[in-house]
Every structure is written in C-alpha cells, then in structure tokens.
Amino acid sequence: MAKVMLNFSELSLDFDSVKTYGDLIVHLSLHSIPSSEVIYRVVVDGEDVTEDHEREIGAEPLEKLEIVEFYTRRIVDIAAEGLKTACELVPSIKLDVLDGAGEIRTGNFERGYGLIGDVAPYLGWYIELLTAIDRVFIAGGDDFLLNGANGHGNLASFEIIESVREQVVALAQAQQYGDHAAVADILEYELAPRLETWEAEVKTLLKRMTEMQATA
After folding, report:
1. Domain count of the chain?
2. Burial code of 25-58, b = ≥16 C-beta within 10 A, e = fewer?
3. Are residues 93 and 141 in the same domain?
4. Do 58 and 83 have their domain in common?
5. With 0-12 CB in 10 A as exposed, 13-18 as middle and 19+ as buried, what is 59?
6. What is the pLDDT of residues 73-121, one digit of tens each?
7. Sign of dihedral through CA atoms 104, 108, 110, 112?
8. Structure pTM?
9. Do 68 and 4 meet the contact criterion of CB atoms below 8 Å apart?
10. Sign (positive/negative) of CA torsion 186, 189, 192, 197?
11. How much is the average pLDDT of 29-54?
C-alpha cells in the first residue's frame, strides 16, 4: 500500500475506506488539510503530477502506488505572492493597453494587435487572482481587505472585475469583426480606466494582505 506524505510527514490512513487516489484527495481535503491551505504540489512515485495526469489516476488503487507526497501552502501566502507580482505587472498592462490603442488608431495594426495578444494572458491572470481573493476572503465575510483596519478606504478593485470581463469579451468581438475603431475605444476608454483603478489600489491590497499574513 502507498506511503502517503503531507508536507514531509507520513499520514496514518484507514485504507479500507481510502482505496484510490481520488478517495485520498477527498479524505485529505476533509480531514487533513486546513481550510486556510491548498495543495500546490503532488508527487507520485517521484514524479510531479500535472492536472491531466491527476485526472487519469483518479481511480488508481493506492496499492499500485509506492509513495504519494502532498505539499500545501496557506492561501494568504499565495495571494500575497501574487499581489507582489501584480504591483509590477498591472502598470505594465495598462501601458500596453494604451499603447495598443494608439498603434491601432494610427493604422499600425500588426503592432497594436501584437500588444493586445501579449498582454491578454497577464490581464487574465490578474482577473483570476482578484476573483480568487474575492471568493476566498471577501465572500467569506472578511471585511479587512476591503475596508482596512479602521473601516474606511473601501477598495473598488473587486467591484469592477465583472465589468472588465465584459470589456474583454467586447474587445474579442470587435477584433473578430475587424472593427479597429471599436477595439481602440474599448482599450482606451473602457479597459484603461479600470486598469487605472487596479493600479491605484494594488499596493494597498498587498499591504492589507501582508498584514493578514502576519496574523493568520
């Protein structure tokens, strides 16, 4: 039967009820891993498990595996790390969005659309980061990230997530129809102002998340 490790410590399990890799994931989530942590790495018999591989081995009997290692991290630490990256990334995204709009308006479509293509994955990453923070911390009833210690200084970053998503969809549609003017307008007048809000608030958000790290 497989040896199961969680953050370098071996776990004692009832293998009568935990028979497959999928059973193990459910058991750990319910009984061994705090709600404040998530699994960030899994190693099975010396090899890192990818998402695709994990789906493949979900029904794999544990008796066929030798050692399964799980590593977790606190959600607050992951969020803080992401926000540190965002402090540098968000201003660059905003500048590229504005540059892209300018290039398209002057007819330099290859350069303009190239900038949009380059920036899109990073914009999507920050949208998902804010969405995760919103779902885990704010929807969970923690007002500190929004309002700070004194109950003032409400952040707008989370309120505009959905509107940014909508503008990204509108941008893709305008590109599909070859409406260059609409693309430039969405970049300059819709996305850039919202990115300005995110840029203005990301350091405050990081500061509050760092304070949560210290007390978690």
Report:
1. 2
2. bebbeeebbeeebeeeebebeeeebeeeeeeebe
3. yes
4. no
5. exposed
6. 999 999 999 999 999 999 999 999 999 999 999 999 999 999 999 999 9
7. negative
8. 0.81
9. yes
10. negative
11. 90
Distances (CA, A) of 74 to 6, 41, 142: 14, 13, 16
> Cβ(70)–Cβ(7) under 8 Å?
yes
Residues in the chain: 216
Q: Which domain holds residue 170?
A: 76-215
Beta-sheet strand order (sheet of 67-74)? 9-10, 3-6, 67-74, 37-44, 47-48
Q: Look at residues 89, 21, 97 and name the one whose alpha carbon lies nearest to residue 53.
A: 21
Return the structure tokens found at 129: 């980061």
Same-domain status, 83 and 144: yes
The residues pairing with 20 across neighbouring beta strands, listed in sequence order, are 61
Does 172 reside within a domain? Answer: yes
Quote the Cα angle for 210-211-212, to 5°: 90
- Whether the per-residue pLDDT at 131 is higher than 60: the answer is yes
Per the listing, tokens 């544990």 go with 62
